[in-house]
Write a structure and sequence with these properties.
The chain folds into two domains: 5-140, Fructose-1,6-Bisphosphatase, subunit A, domain 1 (Fructose-1,6-Bisphosphatase, Chain A, domain 1), CATH 3.30.540; 153-261, D-Maltodextrin-Binding Protein, domain 2 (3-Layer(aba) Sandwich), CATH 3.40.190. It is 26% helix and 26% strand. It has helices spanning 5-20, 42-58, 90-94, 182-190, 205-217, 247-256, and strands spanning 30-32, 39-41, 63-66, 80-88, 101-108, 111-119, 124-129, 134-136, 139-140, 153-155, 175-177, 196-199, 203-204, 220-223, 238-239, 242-246. Strands 3-4-5-6-7-8-9 form a seven-stranded mixed sheet, sandwiched between helices. It has a five-stranded mixed sheet with strand order 11-10-12-16-14, with helices on both faces. Strands 1-2 form a two-stranded antiparallel sheet. β1 (30-32) and β2 form a beta hairpin. This is 3'(2'),5'-bisphosphate nucleotidase CysQ. InterPro entries: Inositol_monophosphatase-like. Belongs to the inositol monophosphatase superfamily. It comes from Ruegeria sediminis.
Length: 266
């Protein structure tokens, strides 16, 4: 990883925040993507245009994968690739909420090596580079090391508690919380604000790439729902869910999830 990849992502994320906050959320023009792929706003597209012009120009040899750019197989031929979500939590942005984020990452041979999650409306910038630890606004952060599900507070959407996902037919007795941005959920676990997070449905790479590295560099563990390390820049850029938390809590969660429901589903 070039030493300047992280600084490049930080500068780009700050510029993304300046662009996105020029829009006013509820009054920003909004469309629904085809095939139920969710909403997109003019702010998403403006941020994506800036990032797509700026980042590949700074790293001509890198591939490109972004939620708001038509995918190309050309990225599969590149050793390094940018993985970008211009605005994670578009629905929240469109509703005028402050809980949305820019998620920027670089992956090398499938492993994320530099990452930034930035929430401009909350003045929160999470960052990490491989082997250098994770920070929030420049201050080192560490994931929770709690070792009890009964005492844990875990970020998860309500459908993840359905009995079909769990060996016992019911979810463990943890306290559930929720935030609309998946990248922000992973960042909150990285800083120890919550003990863990999980999503048991197929997840797009751009939602989780940055959070994967930030959490691992904060001494947490992050895998798919079957316990496999996350690998990025796949031909179909979707992974089989995410389980994240401190090492002990991650092990406990994984032991409770039913492996028969694992695997990418339509």
């Amino acid at each position: 990883m070039p030493a300047t990849d992280l600084s490049l992502l930080i500068d780009a994320a700050l510029e993304a925040g300046r662009i996105a906050t020029r829009y006013t959320g509820r009054t920003a023009e909004r469309w629904d993507k085809p095939l139920g792929a969710g909403p997109v706003t003019e702010a998403d597209l403006a941020v994506n245009a800036m990032l797509e012009a700026r980042l590949p120009a700074a790293r001509p040899g890198y591939g490109w994968l972004s939620e708001e750019t038509e995918d190309s197989t050309a990225r599969l031929e590149r050793e390094r690739v940018f993985i970008i979500d211009p605005i994670d939590g578009t629905r929240s942005f469109a509703e005028g909420s402050r809980t949305w984020a820019h998620s920027l990452a670089v992956a090398e041979n499938g492993v994320v090596t530099a990452a930034v999650i930035y929430l401009p409306m909350r003045d929160l910038l999470y960052a990490a580079a491989a082997g250098q630890g994770a920070t929030l606004n420049g201050v080192p952060i560490l994931a929770s090391q709690i070792a009890s599900l009964d005492e844990a507070e875990i970020l998860a959407a309500r459908p993840n508690l359905e009995g079909r996902h769990w060996r016992s037919g019911r979810a463990p007795n943890f306290t559930r919380a929720y935030r609309p941005s998946l990248a922000y959920r992973m960042a909150l676990v990285s800083q120890g604000r919550f003990d863990g997070m999980l999503t048991l449905r197929p997840s797009w790479e751009w939602d989780i790439a940055a959070g994967d590295l930030i959490l691992r560099e904060a001494r947490g563990r992050c895998t798919d729902r079957a316990g496999n390390p996350l690998r990025f820049n796949n031909p179909h850029p979707r992974l089989d869910g995410v389980i994240a938390g401190g090492e002990k809590l991650h092990t406990l969660l994984l032991s409770q999830i039913d492996p028969e429901t694992a695997g990418i589903r339509p």
